[in-house]
């Protein structure tokens, strides 16, 4: 078989998961906001399935990593749960079993020649810090996060070379503080903007700590994982274009620009100032953000955002919301993944690649998540008991072709991670939609490689397809 799309040498072929979505709650000392939310309102989760067992990675990590190796992945991202690693949230003192567990999995990945990419925050704030301080609304919590980060760097920085501070911080802003899809289900634009700023600052402070501790000189690199949902205006009409620019500034560039360039987008800052909702900041903090930019960027890409100018005057009784400046546009004829309700638009991979190349200094970056969640995959099981997920293979191929085009034109992309190696728990959809190369039977915890798992093995071996 010839390889038509050959990717750069040492390309990462991998996949991503997170601690709270794979490990299960076994032996944790603290509850995250999601653990707590499930405890008080299991109805909020599909089939009332919570994060208690997840994919049992806490207990079966050896077998799981062996399977991941078997499907040819050369790199994997997971996250360290703050609620597992840290015993004393105020001092950052670690818990013995947490240390043992993360040492074990990191060593197991390395032993199997799989590069571990370790993320620190994947939506899983300890709920105590929300109750006591208001979570990400509080600057004290930023400092506690840095203590957690410091403990993690100290414990694992000798072996982990790729770190990321946050996964999809915009989802915290949107889900927890604007559109009420994650606990604490608040809709308050002013608070949302402070949280947006605080998480940017938390990321920069963790990067500052990493550099001060000297891990950069040791071959270590630190980045952030952002969910980019590039905006496409309904038309080239000036009003549509303006709405789309605002949406891009708010949902993408408000993290991308500080992370890569050390500064917030000027146009966004102006609007927030004019509207009297700008965050509270100090010169010293802004300097930390300016001086502590990322080494590499992870981009989670699932869907674009279609935008149009506002149809009706904004209803001010909602308080300030980004929706004051744009409407989402339901584009006729768009392709949709019906299970997740997300548009499928692979061309966007190319647009992201070129945007990073032209507007973000061509920083080294990789696709840190891309995937297709499908419900009811049992119906695709063949007589050998294998799920034939050709739709997923086609989805990946299409996205990779556009990524390839961007790389050919000089974008500095060094890898492609899918979501996710092994079917894992999702925030409120639980196990409704499956994304993995490896299926999990929830009743037996038996894991079986899907057809896409065999496919990625070949792609990884040939460095392309
Ligand atoms: C990303 C997250 O938003 O998408 C993952 O980083 C998440 O944590 C994934 O699971 C898929 O989304 P969902 O909501 O279908 O699980």
Description:
- The protein is α/β, with parallel strands linked by helices.
- It has a single domain (12-462), classed as Glycosidases (TIM Barrel).
- Helix content is 41%, strand content 16%.
- The chain contains 15 helices and 19 strands.
- An 8-stranded parallel beta barrel has the order 1-2-5-6-7-9-14-16, surrounded by 7 helices. A 3-stranded mixed beta sheet has the order 8-10-11, with helices on one face.
- β18 (438-440) and β19 form a beta hairpin.
- α7 runs parallel beside α9 (189-212), α8 runs antiparallel to α9 (189-212) and α9 packs across α12 (283-291).
- The structure holds 6-O-phosphono-beta-D-glucopyranose.
Count of domains: 1
- Which ligands does the model contain, each kind named once? 6-O-phosphono-beta-D-glucopyranose
Which oligomeric state applies?
Answer: single chain
Radius of gyration: 21 Å
**What form results from the Cα inertia axes?**
globular
């Amino acid at each position: 078989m010839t390889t038509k799309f050959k990717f750069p040498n040492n390309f990462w072929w991998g996949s991503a998961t997170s601690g709270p979505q794979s490990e299960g709650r076994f032996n944790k000392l603290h509850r995250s906001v999601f653990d707590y939310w499930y405890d008080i309102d299991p109805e909020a989760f599909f089939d009332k399935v919570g994060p208690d067992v997840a994919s049992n990675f806490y207990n079966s990590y050896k077998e799981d990593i062996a399977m991941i190796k078997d499907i040819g992945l050369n790199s994997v991202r997971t996250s360290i749960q703050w609620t597992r690693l840290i015993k004393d949230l105020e001092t950052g003192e670690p818990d013995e079993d947490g240390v043992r567990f993360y040492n074990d999995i990191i060593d197991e990945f390395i032993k199997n020649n799989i590069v571990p990419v370790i993320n620190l925050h994947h939506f899983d704030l300890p709920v105590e810090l929300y109750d006591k301080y208001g979570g990400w609304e509080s600057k004290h919590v930023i400092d506690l996060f840095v203590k957690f980060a410091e403990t993690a760097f100290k414990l694992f920085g000798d072996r982990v070379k790729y770190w990321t501070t946050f996964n999809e911080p915009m989802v915290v802003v949107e889900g927890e503080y604007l559109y009420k899809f994650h606990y604490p289900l608040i809709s308050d634009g002013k608070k949302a903007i402070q949280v947006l700023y605080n998480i940017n600052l938390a990321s920069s402070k963790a990067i500052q700590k990493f550099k001060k501790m000297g891990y950069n000189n040791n071959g270590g690199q630190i980045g952030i994982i952002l969910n980019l949902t590039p905006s496409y205006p309904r038309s080239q009409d000036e009003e549509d274009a303006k709405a789309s620019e605002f949406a891009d500034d708010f949902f993408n560039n408000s993290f991308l620009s500080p992370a890569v360039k050390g500064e917030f987008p000027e146009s966004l800052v102006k609007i927030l100032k004019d509207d009297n909702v700008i965050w509270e900041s100090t010169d010293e903090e802004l300097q930390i953000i300016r001086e502590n930019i990322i080494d590499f960027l992870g981009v989670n890409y699932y869907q674009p955002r279609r935008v149009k100018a506002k149809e009706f005057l904004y209803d001010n009784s909602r308080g300030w919301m980004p929706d004051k400046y744009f409407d989402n546009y339901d584009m006729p004829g768009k392709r949709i993944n019906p299970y997740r309700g997300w548009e499928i638009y692979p061309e966007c991979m190319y647009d992201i690649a070129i945007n990073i190349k032209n507007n973000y200094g061509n920083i080294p970056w990789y696709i840190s998540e891309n995937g297709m969640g499908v419900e009811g995959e049992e119906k695709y099981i063949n007589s050998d008991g294998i799920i034939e997920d050709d739709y997923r293979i086609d989805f990946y191929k299409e996205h990779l072709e556009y990524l390839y085009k961007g790389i050919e034109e000089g974008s500095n992309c060094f890898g492609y991670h899918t979501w996710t190696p092994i079917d894992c728990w999702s925030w409120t959809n639980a196990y409704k939609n499956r994304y993995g190369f490896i299926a999990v039977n929830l009743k037996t915890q038996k894991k079986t490689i899907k057809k896409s798992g065999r496919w990625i093995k070949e792609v990884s071996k040939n460095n392309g397809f």
